[in-house]
Amino acid sequence: MKFRRARKFRAQLDLVPLIDVVFLLLIFFMVTTTFISVEHQLKVKLPSADTGKGTAAKNLCITLAGDGTILLGDSVTSLSELMDGISRELQKTQDGTVLIKADKSARHGLVVQIMDIAKKAGAEKLAIAATRDEG
Q1: Structural domains of the chain ordered from first start
Q2: In this model, does residue 23 exceed pLDDT 90?
Q3: Which residues contact 112 (CB under 8 A, 6 or more apart)?
Q4: Rounded distance, CA 128 to CA 135, Å?
Q5: Percent helix / strand / coil, the chain, rounded to 5
Q6: What is the Cα–Cα distance from 102 to 47, expressed in whole angstroms?
Q7: Per-residue pLDDT, 76
Q8: What separation, in Å, do the N-terminal and C-terminal C-alpha atoms of the chain show?
Q9: Where are the beta strands (DSSP E) in 50-117?
Q10: Alpha-carbon span 6 to 26, nearest angstrom
Q11: DSSP per-residue string spanning 81-96
């Protein structure tokens, strides 16, 4: 007597719900991520000064790190693109003052180049950031 074999069903894994969950998690993390400003990641040790006065926080700020990295506001820029960026940002502000935050280990020649570029771009005043000496 010949018996028929029962058909064996292969188990299948339905991946559609898994893909849906992965995409939902991806979207959730993209929406809830907080973006950190580059300026806060760039550590700059300002030089100290005995004299000087405070300036308003609304000025255009150029940050120069010790390794030569230049930030115009919150975006990294190069020396060749700096003039266009400064003139574009100065048109947005009422005050023509440019604040330069240079690390005390930054090259002096690069600071002078940035000052020259800022003047050529239309800055009326230049201010250099420093920490106040207590004493």
Answers
A1: 38-132 (3.30.420.270)
A2: yes
A3: none
A4: 21
A5: 35, 20, 50
A6: 8
A7: 87
A8: 109
A9: 60-64, 70-72, 75-77, 97-102
A10: 44
A11: THHHHHHHHHHH-S--
